[in-house]
Amino acid sequence: MKQMNWKELPHAGTVLKAGNANEYKTGSWRTYKPKWVEENCIQCLFCWIYCPDSAVVVKDEKMTGFDYDHCKGCGVCAMECPGKKGNKAIVMEEEGK
Amino acid sequence: MSATQEKPMTLKSLSHKKDNLSGGHRMCSGCGAPTVVRQVLLAIDEPVVIANATGCLEVSTCLFPYTAWRVPWMHSAFENAAATASGIETMYRSLRKQGKLKKEMKFIAFGGDGGTYDIGFQALSGAMERGHQLLYICYDNGAYMNTGIQRSSATPMGADTTTQPVGSKIPGKTVRRKDLTRIMAAHNVAYAAQASPHNWRDLMTKVKKALATNGPAYMGIMAPCNRGWRTQTNDSILLSRLAVDTCYWPLYEVEGGKWTINYDPKDKKKPIAEWLKPQGRFKHLFAPGNEALLERFQKLVDDDWESLQKLAAAFGAK
Amino acid sequence: MAVTSTKTVAVTGNQAVAEAFRQLNPDVMPAYPITPSTGIMESFTKFVSDGKVDTETILVESEHSAMSACIGASAAGGRVATATSAQGLALMWEMLHIASGYRLPILMALVNRALSAPLNIHGDHSDGMGMRDCGWIQLFCENAQEAYDNTIMAYRIAEHKDVRLPIAVNMDGFIISHSIESMKFIPDEDVKKFVGEYIAMDPLLDIDNPKSIGALVLTDYYMEHKRAQHEAMKNVKKVVADVSAEFAKLTGRKYELFETYRLEDAEVAIVALNSAAGTIKDEIDRYWEKGVKVGLLKPRMFRPFPYEEVGAALKNAKAICVMDRADSYGGMGPLYMEIASAVANNRGAVLFNKIYGLGGRDLMPHDVDQVIEETAEVAKSGKVKMVKDYMTVRN
Ligand SMILES: Cc1ncc(C[n+]2csc(CCOP(=O)(O)OP(=O)(O)O)c2C)c(N)n1
Ligand code: SF4
Ligand code: SF4
Ligand code: SF4
Ligand SMILES: [Mg+2]
């Protein structure tokens, strides 16, 4: 983003574009990456409600994957994922593998 | 209609709602606070305006020129979220009274434990006494995290912090924490409660109740901080659950003087060591020679839990 | 426009400001009591209780919360006013910077009082001078009439789109706040018309356009924010002049950025703020009769300070005594520093500084005489005995 000069700044420095942090990608923070194993998913949506980074993508009441632009790879979703028959539907993998 | 009579919330139905805290904020990976905030915002159906005290949540969610907030949000200083919110809420009432504003709105102030138990205590107490129609939420991570893990009056006894570090003579924080939720209940506010993000349904039901109530409301919400607690990035929900299961952080509410314990683990109450053990800030409590400290910690938790049960028995629903 | 009909009344400075507040009818007023400004809030809250204003008060638990609530309320999108003094202002200090940094046109009546320690409740300017660098517009008033008039003008100045800054209207504690004075009020309708409807800028309560106020701003943008704030301050001078001209048309009372009294041909100049000016003017008249060419410069607008205009007004002075009712310990008096900057490019004037009247210590005519005589002496000799000295003090 081109940096504004002082005349271009919004009045009082108020941020007028609500939620524009979305344009800022925190995905590069990851060292581990959550991987969704669909066959083990019971669609409980725990991953969605617990994710600190709004990075679990739910469509039509169904978990569909991750927003890797923002997922920081904390692993909370994997930890809380009940999965099916003891098999997690989210596993953490080393980034870049 | 009271919030409790509505059909039970499900994650599926909630998943249709817009997330009012966007991704791309700069809270640490695995931080508990943004999960708390997301749940709070997802619980609300009305337009809501937020005031936020200086602290991790504030600096990380609104770093110019970005904001993660999709609802009106304002920060002004560290110790004054309650006073700032008082001003916003009063302007709302004034403009409504004069017919200059049509829409109905709700007001929430967020503060960390430092901004709430310590430096913001007076402003909070004043706002609650004045009866503003606002909900104050303390996301409690038990230290001044934003400035590098200094002790606050919410820091548990024994914790290693950068201002009461564990040394050869002093084993971390020597005194017990302040019980702010009870102090808020003693203000006779319309609604006071404790919640934890692992129990999202309880947390969100409480937010709805707090906003539906006539008068000021307070909620203390557990918000694990992996950096300050020296834990893993993936265990914020696990640790908030353990805080409740050990009765370190009981889930309860005080509505118009009526005390209710929302979750009683009964014979499944876990020893406090289960919550303490995974946290690096309590490592020394498990070193040989510190058994008495651990025992004292357990006793404090047990005593508090017992007195809470007595309150609920004496002042609960008959 | 014809000069409005005005009613002459006998009121205290505090009552005059409370009346201005009533006429301005702010939407929200957070307040906390402190002598000598308490009277303003007491009179005003009576108006509230009697339903004479639309204002919602917030009777906060501290001045820090008062200013915090002002900031929240103003950002929410309406008119806000408060009043305080000394310790109260000191407790607000953190928030004063935030009010200006967020460009909120909050109105404050500051009834000047000495700061502790030692504890003292009487008038001096240490509170007002202490907020010098907080980014507020500061107007100083000699008497109740000026305090009333400047308060009526305040929102027009603060809310101007080129300005949007908080404003403090100062008057001397007790000497003005508690003394009854004969003065003129403007009819309610005229005030209402003069002040106009509030126009909010990016109000927080505009729920359909959610915005974030009060971001963390790091090294990449902090300086741009401050540069924009500096620009707003630069615009104040013209707005004050314009609003004052309009006010003069309405009331016949003329206000400049500063007042001069017999300064035009004076070789000897005194500079002083607020109520002391009354006594000084009387003595100036006496000394002209004795052949001493002495005049007064009384700043009205202290922030932003009109350096060029003040420098020009003092260009004929051979000696200037700046009288400060506050001290900057280890430095020169705060007003002195401004005047020294203003005359920096003037030729030949000799300056010196008298600290007087701290903690409400009286300034008597004979004290002023001493100043005039000493300044006249300096004008003759071109030599200053002591650049900074305390007066009205037992030696
Ligand atoms: C008046 C004042 N004192 C100190 C600070 C420095 N400060 C900023 S945030 C903070 C700690 C915040 O702790 P807490 O409220 O618990 O929030 P957390 O960062 O832990 O989420 C401190 C000490 C400040 N901003 N203002
Ligand atoms: S790893 Fe963390 S940030 Fe990524 S989706 Fe899972 S919970 Fe969200
Ligand atoms: S937590 Fe696991 S099982 Fe539940 S929806 Fe997410 S991926 Fe599927
Ligand atoms: S320091 Fe702790 S509270 Fe702050 S953002 Fe990091 S994890 Fe969250
Ligand atoms: Mg904290």
Sheet/helix structural class of chain B: alpha/beta
Instruction: Report the structural category of chain C.
Output: alpha/beta
Uncertain residue segments of chain B: none
What does the main sheet of chain B amount to? 8 strands, mixed
**Separation of the first and last Cα atoms of chain C:** 56 Å
| Whole-angstrom Rg of chain C | 21 Å
Largest beta sheet of chain C: what is the strand line-up? Answer: 10-12-11-14-15-16
Rg of chain B from C-alpha positions? 19 Å
* Widest β-sheet, arrangement of strands of chain B: 2-1-3-4-6-5-7-8
Low-pLDDT residue intervals, each spanning 5 or more residues of chain C: none
Mean pLDDT of chain B: 96
CATH superfamily grouping of the largest domain in chain C: Thiamin diphosphate (ThDP)-binding fold, Pyr/PP domains
Strand residue percentage of chain B: 5-15%
CATH 4th-level superfamily of chain B: Thiamin diphosphate (ThDP)-binding fold, Pyr/PP domains
The CATH topology of the largest domain in chain C comes to: Rossmann fold
Number of E-type strands of chain C = 16
SSE series of chain B: HHEHEHEHHEHEHEHHEEHH
Model description:
The complex is a heterotrimer of chains A (about 100), B (about 325) and C (about 400). Chain A is about 10% helix and about 20% strand. Chain A has about 100 residues and is α+β, with helices and mostly antiparallel strands. Helix content of chain B is about 35%, strand content about 15%. Chain B is built from 12 helices and 8 strands. In chain C, about 40% of the residues lie in helices and about 20% in strands. Chain C has helices spanning about 15-25, 40-50, 65-75, 85-100, 125-130, 145-160, 190-195, 220-250, 275-290, 305-315, 335-340, 365-380, and strands at about 5-10, 30, 55-60, 80-85, 105-110, 135-140, 165-170, 180-185, 210-215, 260, 270, 295-300, 300-305, 320-325, 350-355, 390. In chain C, β15, α12 (about 365-380) and β16 (about 390) form a beta-alpha-beta unit. In chain C, α9 (about 275-290) packs across α12. Chain C is globular. The mean pLDDT of chain C is about 95. At the B-C interface, β2, α4 and α6 of B face β3, α3, α4 and β9 of C. β2 of chain B pairs parallel with β9 of chain C, so a sheet runs across the interface. Thiamine diphosphate binds near residues 56 and 145 of chain B. One iron/sulfur cluster (SF4) binds near residues 60 and 226 of chain B.
